[in-house]
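Ticket opened by: R.M.
Priority: normal
Category: complex prediction / small molecule

The reporter submitted a protein together with 4'-phosphopantetheine and asked that the result be attached to this ticket for the collaborator who will pick it up next week. Submitted input follows.
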Amino acid sequence: MRRVVCPGSFDPVTNGHLDIVTRAAKLYDEVVVAVLRNPNKSPLFSVDERVEMLREVTRGLENVQVARFDGLIVDFCKANDVSAIVKGLRAVSDFDYELQMAQMNYNQAGVETVFISTNPLYAFLSSSLVKDFAKYGGDVTSLVPGPVLDRLKVRAAEAP
Ligand code: PNS
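Result attached by the on-call engineer:
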């Protein structure tokens, strides 16, 4: 059985993320979407909220599970019998750092990374831009799944 992981902050999950997860789910037996708890970042949504949103929007994908992780992704892979990390690549600007991480993860733990080219529809999309636009009244309806849009509106209204 081939189990892979799609790791990230997912603060919040966007249609770009969902596209990659959906495509990975067609290629592999099982996909674990792993949400990083990163103490160095101050997220808009808590890990629990991010996990909840991911569970909601991946409900229709039978071979997708959602988990959280701290620490190194390669340790998560070893502990969960994951054979590869799957990442979306949006543009050349993503490539340098993604390549470096992939090489480090292979060097340190023999864990492979597989890149899926992002759908050009979402090549410009990032959680950070979505948050900025939502915060200042932009319309991000076409960029995030419905349940995320609802929560973003509430959170943006609460923001100082
Ligand atoms: O959505 P993001 O924030 O771009 O995701 C980055 C993430 C979580 C995939 C990456 O930072 C990561 O794998 N972090 C876990 C810690 C780790 O293993 N660091 C070494 C990577 S070589």
